[in-house]
Amino acid sequence: MTDTDTIKRYLPWLVATALFMEQLDATIVNTAVPSIAASLHVTPLSLKSVVTSYILSLAVGIPVSGWMADRFGTRRVFFTAIAIFTVASVLCGLSLNAPMMVAARLLQGLGGAMMMPVGRLSIIRTFPKNELLGAMNFVILPALIGPLLGPTVGGLIVHWTSWRAIFFVNVPVGLLALFLVWRHMPDYHGAEPRPLDVIGLILFSSGTAILSWLLEIFGEHTLDPMTAGLMLALSVALLAAYAWHASESQFPLLRLTLLKVRTFRISVLGGFITRLGIGGLPFLLPLLYQLGLKLAPWQSGLLMMPTAAAAMGMKLIAPKVLARFGYRRVLVFNTICIGLTIGLFALVGANTPWYAIAGIGLLQGFFNSLQFSSMNTLAYADVDPKDSSMASTIASSFQQLSMSFGLAAGSLVTAWFLGRVPQTDQVMVTRALHHAFIALALMTMLSSIVFARLRRGDGESITRSKAATAVAQDPAPLSQA
């Protein structure tokens, strides 16, 4: 077996293990939010800062990950990222109050910020385009076990022990991932060294941080309109200044000219809008089940299992669906289906049968999985291999930013309709959550307009068979440094 064959054999498992840890952590935390809130003496809705701080840290840290991977190599950066993530998980479990928890989650987010895009970059540089869809699906498939186990394991841990134990689950998984990185991670470097765009990092990070924080404060009604308006203007000004800076800089942090590649631009923009709608679900669904329906944490976890199970099943047939119908038809139709299924959660109440809720979850997981497979691979259909690092960084940055905004938007709508009513009022909490689901559904369906701009043959370099591309494309991965 050649070195290339060995890398192709072990790399998907390695990246999947890291993604498993990330997804397990996220879903366990979401399920335990009401219990953590009671322990730390805060309201469950205000505890969204624990979730948003992690996502915000990802959005701020991801832009640097591409430069770090090119400068220091994928193996060293990936190893460091997993180590930071694991240590931060322990600190989360030892937190005594909400600020300590937020600080630990910020550190954890920095580890995740390096972990996800560097792992994706390694996959892109190892597999040719005609093998990319299969490799990506293989990576995501084991990682979906995290959401499958997370809600149930988190619910059982909270029910039988303490919420603090949920963070310690990451330790054995992190140690296994570190071992796999040390043994089998390829060490790719950038073709040409480039300086770090410090000015761009300050402008982009400050703008996104202020904007995400502002959305969170809006949801709690603690900021007067004038101050909020000034903060919003500052955030927009910082992001606009970054866009101007990137156009003038020789080595920008995020090279926005890559958005001129049509399929990449549509994938990033459409994915951004799609995730604005989907981003609030992992936080709002446990609230609906535990506060609205008065279910125990472990019961809430069981109701979220069908979504992950259906997502795993779809990964097995997604390549055939895309090959048969093409990216344009799949993304336009599937986006509308996602919006409709999100809207169905607005019909869930205290008298809704459990099997009906599970059925909605199955549909949600089915359509979400196909959507992510399509968007994540379409982005690289027409990107030059030498731009893969920058493309991965841009796509990951917009992805995490949209998830952060989606979470904040969902919480904002819920808090707006809830007003000053106590969050112990089951009827009013349920009604507010229903309004939030309708708003997220409409937001999600808007992205179908973006995907409608795709052309019939877009993405064929990803979906066509290996035999058909053997002549047109060199299947060898980029050489290792």
SSE blueprint and pairings:
Layout: H1 3-40, H2 48-72, H3 74-93, H4 98-126, H5 129-143, H6 145-160, H7 170-184, H8 198-220, H9 225-248, H10 262-278, H11 281-292, H12 297-344, H13 354-378, H14 388-418, H15 426-451, H16 460-463, H17 466-469
Helix pairs in contact: 1-4, 1-5, 1-6, 1-7, 1-11, 1-12, 2-3, 2-4, 2-8, 2-14, 3-4, 3-7, 4-14, 5-12, 6-12, 8-9, 8-14, 10-13, 10-14, 10-15, 11-12, 11-15, 12-13, 12-15, 14-15
Question: What brief labels describe this structure?
Answer:
single chain; mainly alpha; 77% helix; globular; disordered C terminus
Structural write-up:
The chain is mainly alpha-helical and 481 residues long. Mean pLDDT is 80; it is low at 465-481. It starts with a helix and ends in a 12-residue tail after the last helix. The chain is 77% helix and 0% strand. The protein has helices spanning 3-40, 48-72, 74-93, 98-126, 129-143, 145-160, 170-184, 198-220, 225-248, 262-278, 281-292, 297-344, 354-378, 388-418, 426-451, 460-463, 466-469. Helix 1 runs antiparallel to helix 7, helix 2 (48-72) runs antiparallel to helix 3 and helix 4 (98-126) packs antiparallel against helix 14 (388-418). The longest helix has 48 residues, at 297-344.
The topology string of helices and strands comes to: HHHHHHHHHHHHHHHHH
The proportion of strand residues reads under 5%
Low-confidence stretches: 465-481
- The tally of beta strands, per DSSP, is 0
Structural class: mainly alpha
Question: Fraction of residues in helices?
Answer: over 70%
Tell me the span between the first and last alpha carbons: 20 Å
How many alpha or pi helices?
17
Whole-number mean pLDDT = 80
- The global form is globular
- From the alpha-carbon coordinates, what is the Rg to the nearest angstrom? 21 Å
Please summarize the sheet with the most strands: none
